[in-house]
Amino acid sequence: GFFMQTSEMLRNICMRNLVRKYCRGLTAERKVQLQQKVVTSAVFSGKKEGYLESLSQPFLETRLKESDLNPKVLQLIRGENIKYVTPVIKYDRNGFKARERLLVLTQSSAYVVEMAKIKQKIEYSTLKGISTSNLSDGIVVIHVPEDNKQKGDVILQCEHVFETVTKLCILANKQSLVKVVKGSLRFRVGSGKEGTMVFTVGPEPQVFKDKTGQLTVV
After folding, report:
1. Separation of alpha carbons 23 and 40, rounded Å
2. Within its chain, how far is the Cα of 19 from the centroid?
3. What is the pLDDT along the chain (218 residues), one digit of tens a residue?
4. Where is the TH1 domain (predicted)?
5. Using CA atoms in the order 134, 113, 128, 47, what is the torsion angle rounded to 10 degrees?
6. Is 206 in contact with 218 (CB distance < 8 Å)?
7. 3-state helix/strand/coil string of 139-167
């Protein structure tokens, strides 16, 4: 019995050391990955299509480097620590025209950037919500307060939707504000007006304005 106990003790000690070694051996980068994926899981697991496939894809620190940004833009947001930059498609709130933009996330704000211009700045402290659909599209709506500073909610299509939303809600510290919606979504167009977006399933992924003036995401 004595030997059994000893070997059991040794096995426990060995196991503990292995776990400790594993945790210590985790690079800072790997730790960040795991922390981010835990948030992704809390927000999306069992709610959005494509979540399981996203598990095996490591998040990148950023999709574009700071040096990829126009110097004018860098000048405008100087003093703010840039954390994440990704190309996005932004849909106009009125005619739903698709436009190529960059989403820049800093320590304190999200910026929608067109080449050398900042089109919209959203301070995290004012963020009212982040919405995505339960389907496999990459649409993200950033809901902003109704004030003169904001033109309305921001409608974006992101290629790496899980990564982008995770970065946004961690930086903004607003994990609880992410909603995964089914069917349709309301967004603010500005000056008290609202618009509707409809999510459906079809053979061809597409985003268009339907006859009733709604943005339809297939």
Report:
1. 21
2. 31
3. 677 787 787 788 877 877 777 777 778 888 899 999 999 999 999 999 999 999 999 999 999 999 999 999 999 998 899 999 999 999 998 889 999 999 999 999 999 999 999 999 999 999 999 999 999 999 999 999 888 778 899 999 999 999 999 999 999 999 999 999 999 999 999 777 899 999 999 999 999 999 999 999 99
4. 48-218
5. 10
6. yes
7. EEEEECCCCCCCCCCEEEEECCHHHHHHH
> What's the token pair of residue 132?
């995505």
Strand pairing of 184-190 and 178-181?
unpaired
What the block records as the tokens of 126 is: 């004012």
In contact, 126 and 144? CB cutoff 8 Å: yes
Decide: residue 108, CB within 10 A, 0-12 exposed, 13-18 middle, 19+ buried. middle
Contact present, 105 and 81 (Cβ < 8 Å): no
What is the domain partition of the chain in residue ranges? 47-217
Concatenated DSSP letters of 15-61 = HHHHHHHHHHHS-HHHHHHHHHHHHHHHHHTTTSTTHHHHHTSPPPS
